[in-house]
Amino acid sequence: MVFQLLRCYISGVAVFFEDFFMPTTDEHAASLFTYAASGVNIEAGNDLVRRIKPHAARTRTAGVLGAIGGFGGLFSGDFSPLKEPVLVSGADGVGTKLMVAFAMNRHDTVGRDLVAMNVNDVLCCGARPLFFLDYLGIGALAPDVGEAIIKGVADGCQEAGCALVGGETAELPGLYAPGEYDLAGFCVGVVDKAKIIDGARIKAGDALLGLPSTGLHSNGYSLARKILEPLGYNSFRDELGETIGEAMLRPTAIYVKPVLGLLEKVPVAGIVHITGGGFLENIPRVLPAHTRAVIHRDSWPVPPLFPLLHQTALQQGRIEERELFTTWNMGIGMVLIVAAEHEAAAISALHEYSCKAYRIGEIEACEGQSGEGEARVVLA
Q: Euclidean distance between the first and final Cα of the chain, in Å?
């Protein structure tokens, strides 16, 4: 039997195992345990890092130190224009919208969704997003798929004006089914303490301005998939002008630049990101005691995907209107609350960024410490 001396390298230092010999028989080769044999391809991971570096580089801002590949992302913020800078953090994912991406084998948009869900949340405090990190957990890493996802992340970061400073890609064989993955994102922004938007200044008579969504955004997909999947994601629909799957994968709108531009010109009392829970769960999060929001349902154009969802659900069974407004954004992705006298100026400022806005309702006074016994959001 032939033996060979083993040599391994630990942190660049050669270590010899002089008393340990290993047979090089075919039988041994067949039973050799390696990380790659267990399903983790380190070279594929290294390839992905090489591919994503140019995408991260185009998101670079003045505060970024170093490059992708270190143990931590470095950011040196110049907050000198702010009297009392406050950091605002957010974390979110894309949810089961990913399952539509799997079915369509399209992965270049969900990264943008990931950024949008985070930066829009941070924006609700009046904060400017500074930097972003992503997490990709996947069963078997395909560099082409990974690059498409991270390209989408970089696209979203560029639109939001924040830097992609790092992230984590974890190849987890056995945890995810073949072809499946999950995404999570983390964002940090900054706002001057005196300019934090928390809803405290909201009062009766204020106007609610709705910013249009691009579609479902990244919420309510568990119900949407249950309703539309039987029709086929590759089914072309005239009312949509595209396939069902394409409509469902439309990227989430990023509202950062128009809203930050607005905040420089008009005082805003409240900002609501219409995510999971729709109008009925999200708007109350910013309302002070003794107030409620009245929403006029016919005050904005509703994208055709929502009537399709409603009509298809009725064909399959029944669905209450309140369920629609609790599950989906119904065509409004963000709500801004401004004093009535600032409504026209706010709409004009948003139009400068090619961002439409509709007056969709107003704030009313209501009885009770927190509107107990009454709906905090009334659909009129």
A: 86
CATH code assigned at 108: 3.30.1330.10
Q: What is the pLDDT of residue 300?
A: 98
| HSE (side-chain half, CA atoms, 13 Å) at 316 | 15
Residues linked to residue 20 through DSSP beta bridges, in sequence order = none
Residue 304 CB coordination number (10 Å): 16
Q: Quick: pLDDT tens for 204-224.
A: 999 999 999 999 999 999 999
Instruction: Give yes or no for a contact between 73 and 60, defined as CB atoms under 8 angstroms apart.
Output: no
Contact call for residues 363 and 295 (beta carbons, < 8 A): no
Cβ-contact 272, 278 below 8 angstroms = no
CA distance 158 to 115: 10
Query: What mean pLDDT is predicted for residues 7-18?
Result: 33
Phi, psi of 121 (to 5 degrees): -65, -50
DSSP per position, 28-63: HHHT---TTTTT--HHHHHHHHHHHHHHHHTT--TT
CATH number of the domain to which 324 belongs = 3.90.650.10
Tokens describing residue 340: 């009535």
Q: Which domain holds residue 226?
A: 207-379
Residue 21 pLDDT grade (very low, low, confident, very high; cuts 50, 70, 90): very low
**Domain identity same for 169 and 271:** no
CA-to-CA separations, 257 to 59, 204, 265, in angstroms, rounded: 15, 28, 13
Q: Which two tokens stand for residue 338?
A: 């401004």
Whole-number Å distance between alpha carbons of 355 and 80: 30
Model pLDDT for residues 65-87, shown as the tens digit of each residue: 988 878 899 999 889 889 999 99
